[in-house]
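User: I'm curious whether this sequence folds into something compact or stays loose and floppy. Could you predict its structure so I can see for myself?
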Amino acid sequence: MVRTIITGAAGRMGMRLVALTQEAEGLLLTGAIERTGHPALGKDAGEVAQIEKTGILLSDDLHTCLAESDVVIDFTGPSSCLANLDQVVKASKAMVIGTTGFSERELAQLKTLATKISCVFSPNMSVGINVLMNTIGKIAKSLGESYNIEVIEAHHNKKKDAPSGTALKLAEALADGMGWNLQEVGVYARHGITGERKTREIGIQTIRAGDIVGDHTILFGGPGERIEITHRAHTRDTFARGALRAAEWVVQQPPRLYSMGHVLGLE
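Assistant: Here's the prediction. I'll summarize afterward.
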């Protein structure tokens, strides 16, 4: 059994991870972590997740929990994730990171730390979206520059970062397929008189509304036709199940930074 800690265990994703860990044959929940001062501290993780009791109480002491664990799954925020990663590295444990919203500096720090352990980092743990990421670059290359590329993403109104980490990774895959640099061709907003659209341009548009779990559409607009490829996540369990799959996989791997593509055998 892979002994597993869930950080942010009282959050939307954390609660689903706790619940689904109880159903996973290869995983054993050994820790549930929340920030200091959180009102759920001391409560049973199962009760917080609205399932049966697990016998694991929510704690703010990751250091102690690490002694009895193999892997940490983190869907918190950039600063807390990096603090957790630092502790995981010191304890020489494995980690799965689904947190998004990192700045360039934070992302560089994450990559430096994560290479010291066995770590899977992906802005989207969905199996479907990762298969899509593996194919859209090839589609873009086949269509060529006569097809304009747009990425449209929609999430719930509580999401703090924009564009989503998934949209950015999709845009990177598209740019790589075209042989472009996303830093040079990415367009994140249009307003007013923008002039004619450039050929070498990838538009990335953001929608925030209601309780949308996560929609991503890649639109290829060409002469006389368009192609739209859409992935819709109907429930957060999609991401949670992917993260649990990654947790079982990563504990068997040598230290380095992995993606969900590695977990799924796509890379």
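Summary: The CA atoms of residues 70 and 93 lie 6 Å apart. Residues 127-143 form the longest helix (17 residues).
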